[in-house]
Design brief:
- The complex is a heterodimer of chains A (129) and B (498).
- Chain A has 129 residues and is an all-alpha fold.
- Chain A is built from six helices and no strands.
- Chain B starts with 5 loop residues before the first helix and ends in a 5-residue tail after the last helix.
- Chain B has a domain of 222 residues.
- The chains are: A mainly alpha (129), B mainly alpha (498).
- At the A-B interface, helix 3 and helix 5 of A face helix 5 and helix 6 of B.
Chain lengths: 129, 498
């Protein structure tokens, strides 16, 4: 028990990512309301962002902005500096996720105008009719 | 214009052109069609030049903006990549000739917006076939998908709902792929494909690497609608406007299969997939065979030509995924050949559908009666495409299926071989049913002694017929050119050790 607990606490950010991902995935698959599905998708994407960012951060790490002079003279101790690449990748991923959300919201608006509801089962009933 | 960056012109022209079309289209609707055709012709010419260059001088790698790999983003212009680029630009150009006409009819006011999305989608596909950076694949995949969501939502009936379902499924796929890339980055610290391929064999953490592989490959499977992850495809593809379907249906799934090949053999290696994890191959080929059978069976149940074709696309995805996972040279050659052939077949079929729909509207089977009288050219092209889908020589469908069958026999995957034969038979039944309805049955009005105009020739406009006839000719042309194609291009794409 002790061992498991300390394992969880030591890597709590990764556990949070897994839990968030499952919450999002459940909402995408299991929920009936389209807004909830979209929110689930956003939670899922946020979980991935958390995973990436966690992987780049170091305990006591400094921001990756270096004094060129000092870096040239003394070299760079990469153990002291956070890895900026995951952050940069996630900036792109955030842009993608925002655009997908935008497209999905626009679609939802048109769905609502056409069918007057955002509940999936009611929409499907109206399509069949 | 230097000769080493022609592929960048092929990629950048549609991207920049998209925004030019949006701006110009606001003021002059008549300028849209010539602009789109001009942009895509230029892109096609550049892709053709790159292809010939690669044929004579071999492939090369290109660093964008001179940021050297592995830090900068690298493009890889090899035999397979330039073949795919030629395919993408050729199909896009042919499709757009027809799309210009059908979009002008379907979406009068919003033409320029449609073509903005259309061109960005093409630029995204160009990027996908060239990129040699694993994260870049994610971004370009989303560029292609987001524009496809928009194009689908412009369609008829419940297109918006289909598009929303595709958004949810497509994003799940992309998220899985991104997660896999995250694991790979944590393990290797690099995103460049060549660099990944160099580092991965030295890793010891088996479980994490397998997780990365599984996430990425499942993400790509969702994107390509591999059975049983295909549920979004039939609705999305059949509700799309015809102008978009002629582009999206031939290219999106095929490019994703190309990405799977890239992922399996440029990042990972055949040794990893087929020797270290020997059991997986059996399962994937089995599922592919099951997918082929199920999708063919579901195609039989459809009463609408367009929906029938969407299920056939899913069956074809099974062909190609199965072919790649057969893990021998014949299967791999067949799968790559089938990417080209299936893109052309689907193009031809959807161009025919779009030409029929121009006058007929709905495509339910009983509306097709007497169609051979009314649209002889369209139906002749449809028959060529149908023969190719069934696999009758000398159409190209025969040759790729032949390679796939040989590969299946060589690998001893009898389930897959059986599924291929079953699917060919089902295709024969399906298309001969369509041909029978269109050729022998007379429309109701004629049977009742009135409405003779239903038997008069009333073809689609020439702009829709020309690409259709060209595509049908390409089916036979590529079929006859299979030997040189395999000899000079595809041979180089088969991984070492097969």
């Amino acid at each position: 028990m002790e061992a498991i607990l300390s394992e969880i606490i030591a890597k709590y950010n990764y556990w949070i990512y897994v839990v968030l991902m499952m919450v999002g995935f459940y909402a995408m698959i299991g929920k009936n309301n389209l807004v909830k599905k979209l929110l689930g998708m956003n939670i899922f994407q946020t979980a991935i962002i958390l995973m990436f960012i966690s992987s780049g951060v170091k305990k006591g790490g400094l921001i990756p902005v270096l004094d060129k002079q000092a870096a040239l003279e003394h070299g760079v101790n990469s153990a002291l500096i956070n890895n900026p690449v995951p952050h940069v990748l996630m900036l792109t991923a955030i842009v993608v996720s925002v655009s997908v959300t935008g497209v999905a919201l626009a679609l939802m608006q048109r769905i609502y105008r056409r069918y007057g509801t955002l509940e999936e089962n009611e929409i499907l009933e109206k399509i069949d009719r | 214009m230097s000769a080493t960056n022609l592929h960048m012109y092929a990629l950048a022209t549609p991207l920049i052109g998209a925004f030019a079309v949006m701006v110009v289209g606001r003021f002059s609707r008549r300028a849209v069609a010539p602009m789109v055709l001009g942009i895509l012709s230029f892109s096609f010419a550049a892709a053709l030049a790159v292809f010939l260059q690669v044929l004579s001088g071999g492939g090369f790698r290109y660093v964008v903006g001179n940021w050297l790999a592995p830090y900068g983003i690298e493009l890889s212009v090899d035999h397979l990549g330039s073949l795919m680029q030629l395919l993408v630009s050729g199909v896009a150009l042919t499709a757009s000739v027809s799309a210009v006409k059908s979009v002008a009819k379907d979406l009068e006011e919003r033409q320029h917006l449609f073509f903005t999305l259309y061109l960005i989608l093409i630029a995204g596909l160009h990027g996908l076939v060239l990129t040699a950076d694993a994260f870049n694949v994610y971004v370009l995949l989303e560029i292609a998908s987001i524009t496809a969501y928009g194009l689908i939502a412009l369609g008829r009936g419940r297109a918006v709902v289909s598009s929303f379902n595709y958004v949810i499924m497509g994003s799940t796929g992309a998220c899985f792929y991104l997660l896999g890339i995250g694991y790979l980055y944590i393990l290797t610290g690099t995103l460049n494909m060549a660099d990944l391929a160099r580092i991965i064999p030295t890793l010891e953490s088996g479980a994490a690497l397998a997780t990365a592989f599984a996430f990425c490959i499942v993400g790509l499977w969702i994107k390509m609608a591999f059975f049983p992850l295909h549920v979004w495809l039939p609705n999305a593809y059949s509700d799309m406007p015809d102008g978009a379907a002629v582009l999206v249906a031939p290219l999106m799934t095929k490019v994703t299969i190309y990405l799977m090949i890239r992922f399996m053999f440029s990042i990972f290696s055949p040794a990893y997939e087929f020797i270290q994890h020997a059991g997986v191959q059996q399962i994937v080929v089995g599922v592919a065979a099951l997918g082929i059978v199920c999708a063919s069976a579901m195609a039989i149940a459809q009463k609408n030509l367009r929906r029938m074709l969407t299920y056939l696309i899913i069956a074809e995805v099974g062909y190609m995924v199965g072919g790649v996972w057969l893990a021998n040279a014949q299967g791999m050659t067949g799968a790559i050949l089938h990417i080209v052939n299936d893109a052309l077949m689907t193009l031809c079929l959807f161009l025919a559908v779009s030409a029929i729909a121009y006058h007929e509207g709905a495509l339910d089977f009983d509306r097709l009666r007497g169609l051979f009288r009314r649209m002889p050219v369209t139906m002749a092209a449809l028959v060529v495409a149908a023969l190719s889908m069934i696999g009758v020589p000398p159409t190209c469908g025969f040759f790729s299926k032949w390679y796939l069958l040989l590969g299946g026999i060589e690998a001893g995957q009898w389930l897959y071989v059986g599924a291929l034969i079953f699917s060919s038979l089902v295709n024969a039944v399906l298309f001969f049913r369509v041909i029978e309805i269109a050729y022998f049955r007379t429309p109701d009005e004629v049977a009742h002694g009135s409405g003779h105009e239903a038997l008069q020739v009333r073809e689609a406009p020439a702009a829709m017929l020309q690409p259709l006839v060209l595509a049908a000719a390409a089916l036979i042309g590529v079929g006859l050119a299979t030997g040189p194609l395999v000899q000079h291009v595809i041979r180089f794409a088969v991984p070492v050790g097969f």
